[in-house]
Write a structure and sequence with these properties.
7 helices; alpha/beta; Rossmann fold; 10 strands
C-alpha cells in the first residue's frame, strides 16, 4: 500500500499551484458525473462538508444518510437527497449506498452522551459496517474524519476507538482512502458540551499563539475533504494531520 502524506512547502510554491488548479480540477471532476454519500451529515463536520459540496458542485448526486430527515437550511441544492436508515440494521439498507463512487464519514458521538458501549457502537461499529457495505456496492474513495491522537494501542477509549477505525479501514483496500485527523474542533455546536467548553476556554491563549497546532474550525475540515476529493493521487492512502487541514483550507481560500 502506497501512502501519500500531504506536506506543507514553506516557500509557498505548492500553495500557489494548488490555488490555481482547484477550480479546473473541480470542473473536470464534476464532468465525470459521480455520486457520493455522507454519513454523519448532521454533525458539525458533516454540516460543513455539505456546505462545501453545495458550494463547489462536484457531484451529480449526494445522498445524505441518517436516522431521520432533517431541515436543510439553507437548501444545499437539488442534487442532495436524504435517505433514512437504521444503523443497527445496516445490512437491510444497502440500497442507500448503491451507486456512490465516493463516501464521506463524519459520524461520531461522545461517551458522555452515549455511554461507553454506545460510543464504541457509533464511532467504530457503525463506521466500519457502513464502509464495508459501501465497498461491496462499488464505493471507490472513502473519506473519514478521525482524530489527531488516534492510536489503536492506546489505553484511552476515544483514542483507541479512532485508531481501530483507521486500522480497519486500511485493511479494506479502497481504491482511495483519505483520513482526516483534526485536533480540537472549533465551531458553534447545536448541542452543549460542558467539558469541551471548559477545555476550549483554558486553551484559548495557546490556540491564539499556535492556531494550527491543537485546534481547527470545522469549516476547514469540510473544505479540505472536498479539495482532497478532486486532487489526483499516486497512492491509495492519504493522511491529513491538523496542520495540513489548515494548509489545504487556506490554499483553497486564496483563489477567491
Amino acid at each position: 500500500m502506497t501512502i501519500i502524506y500531504i506536506t506543507v512547502i514553506k516557500d509557498g510554491c505548492w500553495r500557489i499551484r494548488m490555488s490555481e488548479e482547484f477550480q479546473d480540477r473541480a470542473k473536470q471532476y464534476r464532468e465525470m458525473g459521480k455520486t457520493a454519500f455522507i454519513i454523519g451529515y448532521t454533525g458539525e463536520c458533516g454540516k460543513e462538508l455539505v456546505k462545501a459540496l453545495s458550494k463547489n458542485r462536484i457531484f451529480n448526486k449526494v445522498v445524505l444518510i441518517g436516522r431521520r430527515n432533517v431541515d436543510l437550511t439553507p437548501d444545499p441544492g437539488p442534487e442532495f437527497e436524504q435517505k433514512v436508515i437504521d444503523y443497527d440494521k445496516l445490512e437491510e439498507y444497502t440500497e442507500a449506498f448503491q451507486g456512490a463512487q465516493v463516501g464521506y464519514c463524519c459520524l461520531g458521538t461522545t461517551r458522555g452522551k452515549a455511554g461507553k458501549e454506545g460510543f464504541i457502537k457509533v464511532d467504530r461499529d457503525y463506521v466500519l459496517k457502513s464502509a464495508e457495505i459501501a465497498k461491496s456496492t462499488g464505493c471507490q474513495h472513502f473519506s473519514v474524519v478521525t482524530a489527531s491522537s488516534a492510536n489503536k494501542d492506546s489505553m484511552f477509549l476515544y483514542v483507541k476507538t479512532k485508531g481501530e477505525v483507521e486500522h480497519s479501514l486500511k485493511q479494506m483496500a479502497f481504491d482511495k482512502l483519505s483520513i482526516f485527523k483534526p485536533a480540537m474542533l472549533l465551531c458553534e455546536r447545536s448541542e452543549r458540551r460542558i467539558m469541551e467548553k471548559v477545555a476550549l476556554t483554558l486553551m484559548k491563549p495557546w490556540i491564539c499563539m499556535f492556531p494550527t497546532a491543537g485546534s481547527v474550525p470545522t469549516s476547514y475540515v469540510g473544505t479540505a475533504m472536498v479539495v482532497d476529493t478532486v486532487t489526483p493521487s499516486e497512492g491509495n492512502l492519504r493522511i491529513y494531520n491538523n496542520e495540513q487541514i489548515h494548509s489545504v483550507f487556506k490554499q483553497n481560500e486564496q483563489k477567491k
